[in-house]
Design brief:
Layout (H helix, E strand, L loop, with lengths): L17 E3 L2 E6 L8 H13 L4 E4 L5 E6 L1 H13 L7 H7 L2 E3 L13 H12 L14 E4 L13 E6 L2 E6 L2 E5 L1 H20 L19 E4 L2 E6 L3 E3 H9 L5 E2 L4 E4 L8 E2 L9 E3 L13 H12 L4 E4 L11 E8 L2 E8 L7 E4 L1 H10 L2 H10 L2
Parallel strand pairs: 5-6, 6-7, 16-17, 17-18
Antiparallel strand pairs: 1-2, 2-4, 3-4, 3-12, 7-8, 8-9, 10-11, 11-14, 11-15, 13-14, 18-19, 19-20
InterPro entries: NIR_SIR_4Fe-4S (IPR051329), NiRdtase/SiRdtase_haem-b_fer (IPR005117), Nit/Sulf_reduc_fer-like_dom_sf (IPR036136), NO2/SO3_Rdtase_4Fe4S_sf (IPR045854)
Keywords: 4Fe-4S, Heme, Iron, Iron-sulfur, Metal-binding, Oxidoreductase
Protein name: Nitrite/Sulfite reductase ferredoxin-like domain-containing protein
């Protein structure tokens, strides 16, 4: 297995499924207001009948089903569009999926009341048949109404934030206050400008990283809002069917979470902010990706009790697809075992290499300051 994993350089979409080691992967971008019971039932059935029985929640609020045969993956786009899970026109759908909105818009009284209406107006403008714009990979437009989810918690290339009673557009170094009607026009101008920048070979503006603290949207946190997060960002088709059976709309957050209208219990849904599995990040791993060198998800779950409050990222190869950010503990699989990185990313230099999973477990206990203190206190 190569030590230099191949980077494909593109992301799958509804009309562009991607071949993986365990079959074809398809991706769905939910409506701004979430998934209806009928749509959840459709996804559960497709995952169970055509895929591997699992549904992944991405950090951009999308859903992925994998394990499809090629013909089934090619049919999926039109089937999903018929279920209201996207647009049948590939170009219009590619523009629709760049738009994000505060996940509590319309439910959080502290979120700007016109957040959803503004997002819908931008969606209509962006997906209009006469608008000829091809979005770059991972380009994003956010309508950020604030409230319980703080402003800036959602990153994007173009941001509209509600600040002091007005909408303020942020695009690179540019900030401009406007009303709701003007906001739509400003966003469209930014999109056209980004197209010119790309054609001229100039770098696109990027948003500055969020430095605040996002609240855990878990359990009953607002009237009519019950938050859960998917264990390692993935749920089973059975859990998806349970969500459908509630008869209510389920909203997907950009943080691999779901906002429900009532409590639901499932093994792969976490509602307790103290759940140890919240600290875990892992890619699909060996058996699902041909470049992965370890069973990342299994290893991550086995290490959860030893983390003692630390975050863990387990990557099956050097690419680090599951996370580009920093974790307290990062493991990168190699042919000879895991590289161990403290308080860094997959790109940082490891402190040890060639570790088995039990070696890692011992390192976690050995290098835990709280554990050392407990040992000293227990001495006679």
């Amino acid at each position: 297995m190569s030590r230099n994993p191949m980077r494909k350089g593109w992301c799958p979409s509804l009309h562009a499924p991607m071949q993986t080691h365990d079959g074809w992967l398809v991706r769905v971008t939910p409506d701004l207001e979430g998934l209806s019971p009928a749509q959840l039932s459709f996804l559960a059935e497709m995952a169970a009948r055509q895929g591997n029985g699992r549904i992944t929640l991405t950090l951009r609020g999308n859903l992925q089903l994998r394990g499809f045969q090629e013909e089934a993956a090619r049919r999926f786009a039109l089937q999903a569009a018929e279920a209201g899970l996207g647009l049948a026109d590939p170009q219009r759908e590619s523009r629709r999926r760049v738009l994000f909105m505060s996940p509590l818009a319309g439910r959080d009284p502290a979120c700007a009341p016109d957040t959803l209406a503004l997002a819908r107006e931008i969606e209509a403008a962006v997906t209009a048949s006469g608008f000829d714009w091809h979005p770059p990979e991972k380009f994003g437009v956010v309508v950020d109404g604030g409230g319980l989810v703080p402003s800036g918690a959602m990153r994007a290339d173009v941001m509209l934030r509600h600040e002091s009673g007005s909408w303020v557009l942020h695009h690179g170094a540019v900030s401009q206050a406007t009303d709701r009607q003007g906001a739509v026009a400003l966003v469209m101008e930014c999109l056209e400008a980004s197209c010119r920048q790309r054609m001229e070979g100039r770098a696109l503006h990027k948003a500055s990283p969020f430095t605040g603290r996002r609240p855990a949207l878990m359990g009953a946190f607002l009237p009519g809002c019950f938050g859960v997060e998917a264990v390692l960002g993935e749920i089973s088709s059975q859990s998806c069917a349970l969500l459908s059976a509630t008869g209510a709309t389920t909203r997907v957050t950009p943080w691999r979470g779901l906002i429900l209208e009532s409590r639901i219990e499932a093994a792969d849904l976490m509602s307790d902010p103290q759940d140890l599995r919240r600290a875990l990040i892992a890619c699909p791993g060996e058996g699902s990706c041909h470049q992965a060198l370890s069973p990342t998800r299994k290893d991550a779950l086995s290490l959860a009790p030893a983390l003692l409050g630390r975050s863990l990222h387990v990557s099956g190869c050097a690419k680090g697809c599951a996370s580009r950010g920093q974790s307290n503990v990062t493991l990168v699989a190699r042919e000879t075992g895991y590289d161990l990185i403290w308080n860094g990313t997959v790109a940082d230099r490891p402190v040890e290499t060639g570790l088995g999973i039990e070696d890692v477990r011992r390192r976690l206990h050995r290098d835990d300051p709280a554990g050392k203190d407990r040992k000293e206190e227990s001495r006679p």
